[in-house]
Amino acid sequence: QVQLVESGGGLVHPGGSLTLSCSGSVGFRLEYYSIVWFRQAPGKEREGISFIRNSDDVTDYAASAQGRFTISRDHAKNSVLLQMNNLRPEDTGIYYCAADHPPSGSNWWEARVWDGAYWGQGTQVTVSS
User: Which of 53, 65, 77, 100 qualifies as a cystine partner to 58, CB 3.0-4.6 A?
Assistant: First the structure.
């Protein structure tokens, strides 16, 4: 069964760090997919945070994540990582990863682009003092 599983969330103080992991089930090789991380804060729409493209591993970030978050692949673990540093209270939310092959030039930060994607169940990140 094709499955994505997020892990690594938790409670952290402002300024702290977390590394989220998006892992593929056996036989579901993430290296062949573009991967996106979305965040959904309470009462808000899902927001695209970071993206890594399957063809060349080009990465991109939302302005809110630029300079603080890093997305990368761990081929050995069949995972995509989101390293989050200098976390802020506004980073609080449920973080989801999705895997698909969006058309070239798609606005990866828009949730509708990933309508037909494989999605994980999400992992909660809470940034609070």
Answer: 53
The mean of the pLDDT values for the chain is: 96
Pairing of strands 18-24, 4-7: antiparallel
- 40-53 residue pLDDT tens: 999 999 999 999 99
The Cα–Cα gap between 28 and 124 comes to 24
Amino acid in the structure at residue 26: V
Contact 25, 1 (CB under 8 A): yes
Instruction: State the distance between the two ends of the chain, measured CA to CA, in whole angstroms.
Output: 40
User: pLDDT tens digits, residue range 63-84?
Assistant: 999 999 999 999 999 999 999 9
Integer Cα distance of 95 and 41 in angstroms = 9
- How far CA 47 is from CA of 3, 27, 54, 62, 91, in Å, comes to 22, 29, 21, 9, 11
The radius of gyration of the chain's CA atoms, rounded to the nearest angstrom, is: 14
